[in-house]
Amino acid sequence: MKSFRNWTRQDIADKFGLDVKDSCKSLDKWLSTEDDLTDNEINILSRLQTKIRENVDIWNEQELIIKFIALIIDLVDYDSNEYKAFANRKLKGLIDGYEISGEVDLMIASGKFEPKEPYFCLHEYKKEKGVDNDPLGQLIIAMMTAQEINKDSNTVYGAYVMGRNWFFLTLEGRKYCISDEFVATRDDIFKIYMILKKLKDIIKNLSQEKNATGRPKDEK
Fold first, then answer.
1. What is the pTM of this model?
2. I need a labelling partner for 68 at 20 to 30 A (CA). Which of 7, 60, 167, 195 fits?
3. What is the pLDDT of residues 146-166, one digit of tens each?
């Protein structure tokens, strides 16, 4: 069994035929969100922006998570009776008969007490320079595992964070698209938050469709 942390994009391409696309409707639709933020949201995000500007170069991984990423996730508030945000939970699945498992830094998944069907995976990596592994590859293999667990053809959503830089992904089949970086030390922080809020709407719709029909409809 090979853990998420040991996978690279080249490994995934060689083993499972992964490919990257220049554009995906699912990603374009997700990122095109525009939302009116409340004064409270603006104030909180502005304070977080100041914190990351002052500390991003000295925070370690856990400090980045606790003092920045977790606070944005909490502000969005993904927790409901149908789905929740789960941290450092294990995913395990079979991809083309190959057993794969690992911990996901953060996932949004159905389930009241433990994750069942994952909609979104986030992978956090502190270093901005001198990366000696492939954080994107680790995220993609986690998303592919989520895809196999869900056993449907719906889009799987993902993001990874490298210091101040956020990247958003969608995975459909064995093809993925990735955004340009959104830089949290700039006014991109407001766009990052809007994208995460739009994700909440997407997950809510998928969950409602599943509850109504027994299985989410495939996204168009």
1. 0.91
2. 7
3. 999 998 889 999 999 999 999
